[in-house]
Write a structure and sequence with these properties.
The chain is of the alpha/beta class. 29% of the residues lie in helices and 23% in strands. The protein has 10 helices and 12 strands. The chain has an 8-stranded mixed beta sheet, sandwiched between helices. It has a 4-stranded antiparallel beta sheet with strand order 2-1-4-5. Strand 7, helix 6 and strand 8 form a beta-alpha-beta unit. The longest helix has 18 residues.
Amino acid sequence: MTPETTLTAAPKTAAPATEGDPLVRVRNLKMYFPIYRGVLRRQVGEVKAVDDLSFDIFRGETLGLVGESGCGKSSAGRAILRLYDVTDGQILLDGTDIAPLSGRELRRLRPEMQMIFQDPQASLNPRMTVASIIAEPLDEHRRLDRRARMERVFELMDAVGLDRDFANRFPHEFSGGQRQRIGIARALALNPKFIVCDEPIAALDVSIQAQVVNLLEDLQERMGLTYLFISHDLSMVRHLATRVAVMYLGRIMEIGSRDQLYDDPRHPYTQALLSAVPEPDPAAESDRHRIILEGDVPSPANPPEGCNFCTRCPQVKDICKRETPAFRQMSDGRFIACHLV
């Protein structure tokens, strides 16, 4: 019997599986935001930001989540951490379903899962010192005396490469890369098992991005961390991720190992996405075939019938406009939601 068959009773959607022990299991996750209109604020619809996601994240790995802006990547990450109340589905963290939890039950599990936010300036309180920002999770979840608290703060500052003399400074006194290091130190304060990295390098200069990514890799190796790395930078995801999930309009189109997706993309959307990545070799760049998608991304408040990608797919068939493709496992182990594969 495989681990997949012992997860839950008859899941509605198959989920990608590889060798290893999943730390996070997401099953049929839905995150809908209601749309209200009129003086009486009646609900007239809903935005399907996350629509029936199922995947695993294994201990010690980095799962890259990529896609166009507005496809639901950040909403998925925040829903998995229960920063949002989910509409439906399961989120199993180390065997515990956190989707229905609230209050004390959810608070008890907060130390095991943390988040690194996209904009380090917006995610840090400008009125708090570096020491206070890093120590805030300790104040909320641990009972430490002042000495032990500062020892832990200094330990975290050393881990992310910040000078201890900076402890009493404020966020505005630092560069973007240093502020992101402060955010990383705060996320590590409670020794989490799982961290969602929500485009942690998007707001940084190119010269600083590599430093932050190298730091994340080093911390993962030293502390055994598990990452969900959300990004639209396909080159950086290729460098960092173990497996990659491609998302479009709230759904996962394809998920597989890094080499599978980058060397042999199978879903038409994955092919189009990767064709936009420039080649550093001028000769290869001149021979590169770019797939140009026509039209605009449909509104998540009114997704198309059938496959979400059918309105822009260059290989669309009649069945694509009628039936939603099943999320199926291929012979090479990857999972794809496409009638053509």
